[in-house]
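Narrative of accomplishments. A recurring question from our advisory board has been how the design workflow behaves on a single, concrete structure rather than in aggregate. To address it, we present the structure tokens for one chain from the evaluation set, followed by the sequence designed for it. No filtering or post-editing was applied between the two.
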């Protein structure tokens, strides 16, 4: 008879070795690391930039050297402003130069006559006029025997007629020069000369003759 029906009291067979789990752990660790890397990159590039802009509340400065264009609510006039050239600037007003100035030492007087009291003169604002009472030449107004009056304005020629006369009691010595309102006169032994300083026109009156210039 064989002993197959009896329990086997021999040594137990060696237990089987468990299968290795190393590849599984490696895959899990790699997936975890990849997840962390992706999360870090996403946070840094997207969420991090969004928070920086939201927290600062300021517009980031442009890169160095970049041109800045500012918006304006009103249109900008780009037409260059033209500076007036020196030739266009108004020049100071110059006083006109008298053609025949008054003699040095001339005094101011409105009316005067000579010591002979034959020629009487008056200087007005617009003219100087003199009347001669006795003279030996034809009357300028063809009114013989009547006082003749000569006058000259600041501009223009001399007028002479017998329509009116000048009379004054202010006697000045011979050799006196008078100037007023742009007119001048000199009193000499033989007569009186008056003229406009600006135009140079005037007259010389003596008993013997008259001269208009």
């Amino acid at each position: 008879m064989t002993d197959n029906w009896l329990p086997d009291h021999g040594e137990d067979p060696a237990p089987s070795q468990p299968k290795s789990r190393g590849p599984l752990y490696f895959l899990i660790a790699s997936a975890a690391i990849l997840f962390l890397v992706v999360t870090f990159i996403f946070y840094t590039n997207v969420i991090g930039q969004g928070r920086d802009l939201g927290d600062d509340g300021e517009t980031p400065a442009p890169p160095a050297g970049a041109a800045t264009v500012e918006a304006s609510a009103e249109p900008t006039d780009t037409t260059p402003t033209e500076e007036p050239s020196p030739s266009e600037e108004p020049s100071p007003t110059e006083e006109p130069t008298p053609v025949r100035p008054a003699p040095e030492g001339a005094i101011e007087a409105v009316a005067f006559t000579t010591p002979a009291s034959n020629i009487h003169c008056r200087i007005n604002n617009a003219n100087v006029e003199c009347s001669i009472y006795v003279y030996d030449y034809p009357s300028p107004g063809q009114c013989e025997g009547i006082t003749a009056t000569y006058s000259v304005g600041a501009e223009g020629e001399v007028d002479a007629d017998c329509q009116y006369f000048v009379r004054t009691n202010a006697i000045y010595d011979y050799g006196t020069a008078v100037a007023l309102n742009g007119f001048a006169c000199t009193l000499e032994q033989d007569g009186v000369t008056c003229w406009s300083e600006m135009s140079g026109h005037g007259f010389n009156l003596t008993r013997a003759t008259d001269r208009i210039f």
